From TrEMBL:
It comes from the Bacteria. One of its GO terms (molecular function) is oxidoreductase activity, acting on the aldehyde or oxo group of donors, NAD or NADP as acceptor. This is Aldehyde dehydrogenase. Residues 17-485 form the Aldehyde dehydrogenase domain.
Amino acid sequence: MTGPDGPGQRLFIAGEWVEPDGGHHPVVDPATEETVGLAPEASRAQVLAATEAARDAFGPWSRTPPEERARLLDAAAEIVLRHTEPYTELARAETGATTGTARAMQVRVAAARFRRYAKGALEPVEQPLPPQLNPAGPMGPARIMGALAVRRPVGVVTCVTSYNNPWANAAGKVAPALAMGNTVVVKPAPQDPLSVYRMAGALAEAGIPPGVVNVVGGTSTAVGEAAVGAPAVDMVSFTGSTAVGRRIAEVCGRGMKRRLMELGGKGAALVFDDADPEAAVRAIGTTFTFYSGQICTAPTRVIAQRGIHDRLVAGLAALAARLPVGHPAEPGTVVGPVISAAHRDRVESYVALGRAEGARLVAGGERPSFERGFWVAPTLFTECAAGMRIVREEIFGPVVVVVPFDTEDEGVALVNDSEYGLMDYVWSGDTARAFRVAARLRSGGVGINTVGRHMEAPFGGFRASGVGRDVGSYALHAYSETQAIVWPG
């Protein structure tokens, strides 16, 4: 893999591919441990230069007609789709996602998001307010006042993206930010940043003006700290762990910067006795198959009513045992590796912890026998108690825990007994009960008899799972400030 102008990837600053001050670090294929490419190490000075370039570009870009912003985003989508196969191969190699997942859920979702926010650039930003009669008083005679609420771009947005989906996550931030007239500095995850630089190349090829999009990355925490704390930055959009999110929030608080944060999750699947057990097993099993559980919305906690508990456990154990684990490029593979050796070791430490806590290991628990790569077998624990760490803490891997319950109130209490609140799920044949229970769950989203997503529905979390909402038109609101305009009628 080569960068635009040499053997190592370069940074993208002010419309130019710039040699990194700190050299390069290898990006490793999680399946083979081979080097995919060399990613750049930006210096603090280069990060600040990127934020200043974004600041300089903001004025002209924010005044660019919405129709032109829409045209450029559409053009970027076309370029991404035209390069679907090489982009898919890169995403597969650096993330460990299966080829099908890399193509459909990463590259093509990124293109779809550019298309969606090309339309978003044309959505109305003005909301007329009803006229108001102000009676005579110290401020003057009686009069009718008119008003508009108008959404304006925030300014320079630092987008800190996650490793589990570099294409879709980055596009989900960059596209709505640009549609609203903001400029961006993207700091990609160090494990798989090369896809984000390809995205920047697609935007540049589409004609996005210099400085509107900048990408600066590296393994040092100083890179992220500079990208978040730079004086030129008005907003931070972050996807990642709650621990890092708290540190970013402190910096944003000191600088009064806007923030949009999609953080950790410990999603619960609340399964009632009258649920369809096979459908519930298939859905919960996506924790094993989709990015090998490296996704914040995964239903990793199963809160199972006792009448269905044993059937669920048997179904999940059978599913875990028959899922093909293998190289992501092979057509039959369903479960690929996790992102790194360090993360594999972390997930394995939770498996050991679960055993030590007294949970019963029903499936998995042993490392798959590959010579190289970062593998974790689909793992299932039962006989879990609400206080166990494997039940309470985000593992971010293909590990599912099952906790039994008796009554509806008990089930709801178990779901809500978490510091997280991103996405929960209710499985029941009683539609009225499912909607009633959903209203009691303290999470940003609830799936009823599905783990599917609606891509216009607001996305974000309660409590330690985040601040703010994006997706659909909600993302346009997230990347804008509201200005009031008032005049005498």
